[in-house]
Amino acid sequence: MGSCAAHALTVDTMFLVSDASGNGVVTLTNDFDKTSFIKTSISEINTDSRGEITRNKYTKENIQQWRVMTTNPKLILEPGRAKDVGIRSLCYKVKCESDKDMTFSVVFEPAPYLKKGEEQDNAVQVNYGYSVIYVVPAKASEMKYSITRKGRSLEILNQGNTMLTFVIDRCKSDNVANCRTQERVISGRFKKFELPEYMKSLTLEASIYNHDESYKRQIVLTPEAKI
Q: Which Gene3D superfamilies does the record cross-reference, listed alphabetically (predicted)?
């Protein structure tokens, strides 16, 4: 039987907000002992009428509708090396909204790099890829949302035009491992999630803010709260 080799590609962030021009940079590092061939792919993320996530993958067939692209769709990365990959706005040539966020999933998928004539060894390659959430924010944030809590259960409906971040942080007061909860909720999204069991009966303080914290609000959530 072949051994199992972990293919360790790392990225410097899993969430990135663009600059004012819609551009950004992700740094990839190859921590494996072999050269990696890395492919990138992009999907545009939206929501449907129920607040569920929809994804439109960018392909050759819809290239005329692309709103962003990477500077290196395919690249080779040697062991121990790092490389910046740019994410560039294409809004100078396609129509883009500025009154609401544009959200994308940028996926980096590594594979062993084989030169011509080389064959993959008998090791089972475990290739760990990453999906980076990339947000081009609305020019002006309009925050509107509703939050419902029932014990451990939380529901957030983001009716605003921009992503919100919801945080409960009790790490200064609670000596437990899961003392912090953070959820990012894109515009139009209805999201349900569970709090840690030990928080079930507690009255909790939470923070809500937008991408640059120009909006920040502290709220108190009782075990049966509706905001």
A: Immunoglobulins
Between CA 111 and CA 132 the distance in angstroms is 18
**Cα–Cα dist 146/123, whole Å:** 50
- In whole numbers, what is the pLDDT of the chain averaged over residues? 89
Q: Mean pLDDT check: name the lowest of 8-12, 81-85, 156-160.
A: 8-12
Q: What's the pTM value of the predicted model, to 2 decimals?
A: 0.86
Q: What is the CATH number of domain 145-221?
A: 2.60.40
CB < 8 Å & 24+ apart, contacts of 220-224: 221/147, 221/149, 221/154, 222/149, 223/149, 223/150, 223/151, 224/149, 224/150, 224/151
Q: Please state, in angstroms and as integers, the Cα–Cα distance from residue 38 to each residue in 76, 88, 96, 129, 132, following that order.
A: 6, 18, 28, 9, 14
Indicate where the chain has its CATH 2.60.40.10 domain(s). Answer: 9-136
Handedness of CA 93, 98, 104, 108 (dihedral sign): positive
SS3 of 82-149: EEEEEEEECCCCCCCCCCCCEEEEEEEEEEECCCCCCCCCCCEEEEECEEEEEEECCCCCCCCEEEEE
* Separation in Å, CA 14 to CA 105, 146, 195, 196, 225: 10, 26, 22, 23, 31
Domain 9-136 sits in CATH 2.60.40.10: yes
CA distance 88 to 71: 7
pLDDT of residue 117: 53
